[in-house]
Amino acid sequence: MENTQRHRPAEDGGAPSGEESAGSRAALELLVHGVGGTTPEQMLDDPRTVRVTGDDIAAVFRRADDADAERGSGARRDGPVPEAYVWCNLTSGNGTRALWLLLLPFMVVNLAHWMRPTAHGRRRTVRLYGLLVRLTGLSLTVLLVAAACEVALDLTAWQCAGTPACAGRHSWLGFLSPGEGWWGAPGRRLALAALVPAALTGLLWFLSLRTWSAYESQQPLGGPGAQEDTGPTALNRPGFWYGRRLGARLRAAHTAAALLTVAAAVGSAAARYDREPGGPAVLGVLGALLEASLAAGAGAAGWVVCRRGRSERRLDGDADRRLVRGLPLAALALLALSALYAGWERPAWESADRLPGNLTFGALTFAQGLLVIVLACVAHALHRTDPDRRAALRGLAGPAVAMLACALGGVMSGGVSQRMSDWLDGTRASIPGPPVLLTWQASVIPPLLLLLLVMCCWLARRAWHLARAERAAVEEEYAGEAGDPGRTRRIASVRAMAALTDRGPRILAVTSAATLLLGAGALAGATATGETPGAAARGAHPVLHGAAQTAQALGSWLIGLGFVLLVTWGRRAYKDASARRTIGILWDVGTFWPRAAHPFAPPCYAERAVPDLTWRIATWTGATGGRLVLSGHSQGSVLAAAAAWQLPPSARRRVALLTYGSPLERLYGRWFPAHFGPDALDALHRDVVCWSNLYRRTDPIGGPVRLPGDGGPEVDRPPLKDPLAYGRTAEHPLPAPILGHSDYQADPAFAEERRRLLARLRPEVPAPRSTGRPGPAA
């Protein structure tokens, strides 16, 4: 590897003549761990560590012996001072994080926002893409709250409490039964039950606000005066990691939409009754005015979602306080008026059948399918503008993931409703139960799982063929070693399983297409028949009738089992730290991106981690003028790259990038081409002084960056050997393990690449320490 980079000549700051200062000789390795987290003691390989800066959520640690390395008279000469940035508590802290499992659909739809294809010169089309994803996210909020209304208002207050046989089996519903007291009126039962979805909405609003304050309110390095930075990726823009304005607007709009959904569920039944012939004229007029007000409020919430996207080209600190406060308060006032209107005395009113307004689920399903189809058309148009052969699904990954988010929302909503109905009524059939559409949606789960089973069989067959092909490669790589067929098979099998990661787009494509088709079939069947699948197939061929009944029963059981497993896993994670860390790994991957499409998604840890890294790098290089190796493993390499993009040029001149087990191209480059595509990674290669990437063929996550050397030396080192030794040797008297994605630092190539990177960095005269400034401005 060359000692200098062709595209970057030496700039102001060669080593001073004569005796070098300790600052000019300073070298630092800033380690950033990957998914799952670790401890500073493990990262630094020393039981004695001290916190240099940070708090209990995220902090920088050093070995105790290195705490004052820059100030000491004897500088380290055997390598750079190691520092560890530990951010695992951002995603796997206390037990309440397990509740984030319930926000999984919101997280998935937020990912769809960032999966758009690369497009140059199509600004309006890009805005349309973001708008469609935000509307899909809004529909998921309405769906969640509608499911809560279905459970609390329809199944409990309207159906069970209004049916003596059902209410008699649940003593806690006795005071809501007709004729048992003031609360026995249908409208008053609905008004009381509305407290449940309203409380859920309040909880989501509170969590979103609190997590924003803890995670996403960190101001980036540049400050309000930072200049716009243009390039092939938005990750170098000063406002990318500061979405305060959009987050506040989306939080207000989604909160208002949720409260208006509850208000509509409460007031629609009373308004429908008042519109019937002979109903009270005054209440009929009030009901029409209330419904018009609810429609106007829904339009206002939709307008706020559509009106503004992300402001990345500058730090947008505007708070829109009137809108952020006024919209939810207006929706809350309409909810109170709806409860007052529904609770008005109507002596002849009785609850029967299902709660009016159950067409909501059908309308939401249709709207979500339509949004996904239009989103796919927009994504296809963007991909055709600037084709990327490595992009997953040829640019359609975003619509496919949005479809899965809608499916997850439907499954979770149906699961809650079905389990609540079974608990309230069991098999007695004294109440109508949940909407027919939810039963149809449950019935399509068995064929979807059967399709996934077929795909798993295909993957297993593919892995078997790959393993057979890899055996010859393993034998060639370890030529001269004593042959061990079992050892060869194990190494080849690990490589084959690691290669299956690249088949992920096909699995997603088949699953999303099947979900869309089966969901459309369920909607058509429920709309056309108005009956459950088993009842609709009555009178058909016995085989068809039996299949419909089996799918209905099995789907109901599976959807209930899935919901129970979700709750059980959440409870276990609340008590078990190891299970909590497993859940944290999911969020490490899924919550890297800012909440641009859904404000109730789990918080974005990178809006805290990236400013942390940039501030630390800029302040250290500004104070010492030393050389810094930014060393990132797995997801830590993604954070490192994002931090490097945000650095000012004065700090970037002092930084080398070392990535290992990195998903930068293999996962992020394929699934998020607009931000980590070939142009973006090539620009990063040119921006940093030097960059080296390590990977193994046995690694299912990390891979090569695949950048050409025309912008400087090659980034990718040839794949590392894994295991380091085939059999027993003098250096490895015990069998060497197959490391896969872990322990890259155990390979001698790691220290070698770090030395080469430091050799290509040039020290400069340290900045004056008396200025009092925290670091260079962007």
Automatic annotation (TrEMBL):
Give UniProt keywords alphabetically. Membrane, Transmembrane, Transmembrane helix
Extent of Low complexity compositional bias? 12-26
Where is this chain compositionally biased, Basic and acidic residues type?
Answer: 1-11
Domain of life from the UniProt record? Bacteria
| Region called Disordered, residue ranges | 1-26, 726-745
Q: Which InterPro entries match?
A: AB_hydrolase_fold
TM regions (residue ranges):
128-148, 190-209, 252-271, 283-305, 326-344, 364-383, 395-417, 437-460, 507-530, 550-570
Q: Which SUPFAM superfamilies match?
A: alpha/beta-Hydrolases
Keyword presence, Transmembrane? yes
Q: Does the keyword Transmembrane helix apply?
A: yes
What is the name of the protein in this document? Integral membrane protein
Question: What is the species of this protein?
Answer: Streptomyces erythrogriseus
